[in-house]
Input
Amino acid sequence: MQKLGEFKLPHFFNYPPYFTLQPVRDTREKQIQLWKELILDYCRTQKLFVIELEKDFPLFTNPTIERSLTHEAKDAFLSALVSDGRAEWMDKSHRKCLILWHRIQDWAELVLRYVRENGLEDSVMTVEEIRLGTESRGTELHGMDRTILMRALKLLEHKGKLAIFKGTSTDDEGVKFSLQ
Amino acid sequence: MRRRPGIGGLQTAAAARDQYRLLGENVAKLRTDLMKEQLSTFRSQLEDFARKHKNDIRKNPAFRSQFHEMCAKVGVDPLASNKGFWAELLGIGDFYYELGVQIVDICLATRAHNGGLIKLEELCKILCQRRKGAREAVSEDDCLRAISKLKVLGSGFEVISVGKRKLVRSVPTELNKDHNEILEMAQAQGFVTVEEVERRLSWSSGRAIDALETLLDEGLAMIDDGHRDGRRRYWFPCVSSISSYVGAETI
Output
């Protein structure tokens, strides 16, 4: 089986027609389904959050069979993820796409678990501390995308689990948890 | 002096006829009895054989296929009914019904990829993978038998021959001669181009495109525009192993 680094590629990745957007509806739906799963899987294992359509992305080219996805095909697969709620376009011209291998509410759950496991139920942290601090090392939160983290935090703020405030001394935003 | 016909003569003739008839009946009865005896001997021998080789029949696909052949020659169908001696003795009916169900399952699971047409080899391979836990090995012959039993459901399961290969069809698509020829051609590389079809089969381009479009609509073909030479390739997942790999993962 072909591999991309440590990532095991599925068999369809070596079958040339999967790189051409299929004209027949049933066939295309199955094709899109397989690509959606592959993209989410790959981003999850590689901790990738953003796909830029105009830049090289290892998943969209298979040198072994000399096939690459056309722009149209990439757009179709990512748009399908968007309509599933597993991705979001970051601009109107569909150049950058945010991949949500965890949905926002799942990321929020992970934040809550992290807070409870570290006894931070009513402490104050900066957003960068959550993303890059020593406590989050080894958890899925470590190194996560800031945009996604902010969205998860805003969701929790909405639920009354925390308050986000602008820091006075730094540019970074602060978070006051109130879980008790 | 000439004897005139009399009642005595008639009676004698009738009696003789009766005698002949009785004798004939006796002979016929003897023969039938003998026949019946032979048949029952044969049947009990076949049963003895089956009992003696029960394990071989269940476990060894080659042996099983030979046993089936022998039964067919003497007009016994161990699969004819799930009830009765054969099923009880060998559990052979259940075995094939089980295979049948699994075959239907596999055909459905891979249909999105291969359009409902799958190589017998591939089907058998996936079947073996799925049955890894089961003791009995499964041969292509067993698949064919199980599929032939599926026919009574009228669900359109059928085995078709394309070139040297056997394909199992699980959709009621009617493949005509043109389609078959294209599939046969595709077995070499897994794909064909319009130009190749025209050249090798000496068809007009309309005929080639028409046949390929139908195969595309039926979900049996996929297009590939990614090759350097810019020629559109029509791939046929049903003749390349990749199709069932894709399907097998989702089962």
Summary: Chain A has a mean pLDDT of 89. Chain A has five helices and ten strands. The interface with chain B takes residues 10-12, 14-20, 22-24, 26-27, 29-30, 34, 66-68 of chain A (CB under 8 Å).
